[in-house]
Amino acid sequence: MFEKYPIDNCIDPKQSRPLSLKIVLDIDDDVEDYDEKFEEYITKMFENLKDSTKKPASILKKFSTSVITFQELDVEDANFQKKFSSEYQLGEWIIQLCCLIPIQIAVTRNNLFQPLKDGLSSNENYLIELEDGRHVNIISKNISFGWYEGIFKHFGNKKVKVISSMGEQSCGKSFMLNHIVGTTFDGSAMRCTEGVWMSLVNTQECIYVALDFEGLKSLERTPQEALFNTVVSNLILFKNQFTINRDISMFQKFQDGAKLFESDPKIFQARLCVIIKDVPKVDRNGITREFQSKFDQLVSKEGEDNFITRMYGSGLDIIPWPVFGDTAWFKKLSIFKTTLDKLETKYENARAFLQNTKVIMAKLKICDWGSLDENLIQIRVATLKRLFPIAVSYGIEQKDSIIEHLMNHDSGEPIDDPIINLCDVLINLEKSTKLLPDSNIWLYDNKYETCIQLSNNLRNYFEEIVQPRRESSDDNEWFSNLDRFFKYIIGRRTSRVQNWYMQNTAKFPQDNSDVVNGKYEMEQEISKLSLLWTLCGLTCHQCGLKCVKNRDHKENHDCLTDHKCHFFCHFTEAHNDNLIPKCSHKAGHEGKHACDKISHLCGKPCSLDDKRNCQKVCSKEIGHDDDEHLCQSKRHYCGKDCSLSASTPKGDYQCPNKCIISYEEEHDSHRCENTICPIQCPIPNCKERCQSDDHFHAFSEVNHFCGNEHQCRELCEDKGICQVVTEPKEQEETYKGLVEETSITFTKYIQLSERLKCNKKIPPNEFKHTGKHTHKENGFHYCDTKCQFCEYYCTLPYGHTQQTHDTRHGNMTQTEFTGEDNEFEYAGYKLRVGDQGTFVLCNLFCKDLGRHRHIDYCQNANCILGNQGQDIQHINENVLPNPDEPKDFISHKLFWKRTGFKDPYSVQDQQEFEKCDYECPDDKHHNSDTKFCELQLFHAPLNPRSSPPINYGYISLDGHHFNCENPNAAFHIVLVLDRSWSMDEQDIKPIPDYLIYDDLKKKHNNRIGAVYQAVYSFMDARRNSAQITIPDSISLILFNNWASVPFEYQDLTDPKVLLNSMLQYEAWLGTNYDSAITKAGSLIEAHFDSKKTNVIIFLSDGECYIPTNQLHAICKQNKEKGSPLYLYTVLFGSDSHSGTLEEMAKIAQSYHPQNSSSDSLRCQFTRVNDANKLVIHFTNVAESLRKHKPSLLKKV
Fold first, then answer.
1. Cβ contact 350:158 at 8 Å
2. What's the pLDDT tens digit per position in 410-419?
């Protein structure tokens, strides 16, 4: 263990505890001798350990051993336990144990960054529909760090510093990280770290999070992984193999990620330490200068986009590290502790680290390159909005199972819930009673439109601690106290929820649209609560008490009592000494209390008992003189419907109350006891009532404003895009290719634009605010231009002055594959022209191709002006899709220039893409680094006879310069040429003033002459190329109805001799492919040489059937000999009969392995319709140097 992991703790020496060994022996005598022997043995063992590892081991000096006998072993004895046992806090011990186990938190698969859930891939569907569509939020919630989740939450207030290790594979990254921090990442000489692993060390000052990354040269590495490392870390250790690799090419991954996120100093604060492994002391200064120089060059080349300036705000260190095994190797580790101590913490506490890290991982997963701050605001506001219902209803965040109080999510502190005395709330209350705390009081439920059910408990509590309603002689005073009590309870809840929202959004800009909208939604929830608890206060329809339903109830007014008067009968003397009964009138009646046990008053029906407010029985003396029976009510109401009726923007309104004007008064307008205007404010979503105290306010031409300011809810009118949202369309989408067996599973991401709501306030008593609607005054709006391939929006401001647009790019949904070959392989999948490019990422496609050329529709009037410089080369063939539309090869530079968007690739990549994409055909390159032509793309061909530039390498037959040895390929080339009548036509003639023109113009100034000229040019180019160890051999078959052989298996020492043999034949008779292919097969058989590649170049301009049987027989025979035949078919002239020659090439190609590593030769069909192109084709045909890479074309 001590050989693999640290002995002393470098980062926190306080954590190193002295170790001890207790040995129990089954002996009776000489225990002390064994004690000395064990101690001597262990001491010697530790000395050997220190000598072999050179590790600091001061803690081992305190190691103790003791030996006892079985007789002394009494584990139940208290003294024994005190002497021989160690004491640990159980919780602390469990946490330390968990921290010894690293967990994998992310991997890279299919070129995508994949966060894990509890160390495992998660198959959960991320497409849970959120109200606000925040996919980063739901993905981040699906990420979990296993047992470390609880540790981070337990130490939620502690600061966090992150140290990470990366570099080349098998260079000791994990070993070094373990000895710096005290972690236990696995390490070996083999590749053992896949993806990203996390562990942590908890100290008194802070938590040190250690991240161990997969080797940089792993095939699974992506720029996102390097970017994740940079964004979350404080200190990054990058180990480099000094003895193996002294270049900085591996930093290309860093450069690829530098352009993805905006250069934000708040997130790019890491310090990068480049550690050069195993540097002898004498080389340290030199290697430091060398690496510094290379980094300076990189910074100069990439300009302001260089990854060092953009991503490492705390700077760069280049540290030559001592040779492993040297004592200095371990002593030097202390510099990282010093560096970490100096660096500011990126995270205010562990809670912030946990959330920010998960959000970053979610953003990288869905290729969302937008602002991290914006995501954090959106997630925080979305979290608060999700909690609004329970926060407003109960004053807590979680009720089920475990109650979680309203918290400040940044500091972890609870929102203040003061307990006050009731006498501070109610006037004239003498009793000193502490009021219930706000938390967990049920105040709202959207299932209830009235507060009857909700208010029962609070009313009972009020009556219990203040005064029962039945005992109150003044219901107005009682109702006033209840109303004041309810308003305090609701006000307290409102204040706590507002304070909770304010504290949790305090660190964000208060004019941010999400913060503003969240606050608006909170105010809406609070408004519902306040309105629900606004008491009616009008008279109960069954008695004289006040209604305690909410103001907007639709049913009859109700005091929610039994409506009985509970006071004792006023006429006490009439009951003698008997128990005085209670009043028989309705509660809240006027006049004296009278029971119904004895007739104290007249008691006959009131003559106005059909009127409202009547007490029904006559209150006059028994046997009163007049005939009019009247009750104790001072006024009998009219009782007709209130006259208030109005049409409002929110619908017609009819006052539900009854007239309280005395029936005796003459009146045309009926007025109820409600004195204020009851009509709702006309502003949409506002539930408040009109501010007027005039109940009949609506009879005037007025607006019923509530008098408050309102949040504008219109959409922003500013030009440009307010917000761009990246979201996964599917968790995994499957693309079914045009080739039957092709099925590609990938994650597809799309960008949506959003118009945000205006953040302005509408002033009181106004329908609109001044000025236009805007989500933020002078706020940022994105340019509304989209990349034509992936439809990602430009990330620059609307109306930007920069000529090119810029974005981070996504899936190339608006493209389809094109290429010179109808079927091809891309990224390991078999595809066909016309397949969709939707699974390809815009900013990775070109990098995956390496040197390449793009295909685009011709934009130069069918190229009648000729080639347009080095960035364009016209394609003479018909290329799918839309074969009738002329197309060009264009350079990577021109491809991106035409999009109008900034090239997303690094300067280093761009420089590589400017170069020629032709490859040396030598097979020795196929299993190592490909050797490309050293010239620019679309360069003019060099003369194969001339010396190569800088006298190094060679020039190929087709004019490319390679910095390697000539591949020395040797061929037996069988030229099979059509000399039928049609070859005598003079629509195509030899090229004047070119090779052997004078020899041809007399008798062969026709098609066959043009062919002879091309053949001679080909033989001359082969003869004059660099010296070949094994010379080519050439045979010629001229066919019409039968086949003739002017020469066979000749070398190219004197092409003139071969020319003279060829010129004896003129064009005549018909066409017979059978005899030509049969003769070619017999020549190859007769002169078979395993050291030479057999190539047939078959040219014709006429029509003939396919020699299927003969061709299959020849191809099969050569394949069985281990030397598959290469067949080039050339249609010369009209293309009306191309099917036969094209099918012949396909038959021959079918005898070659589909996964053949050789790209230098392949069977193929070509059309040529003039002499120049024929010459060029013949000089290229024996060396196909360029891979036919697919291209993506904009859909039309």
1. yes
2. 888 999 998 8
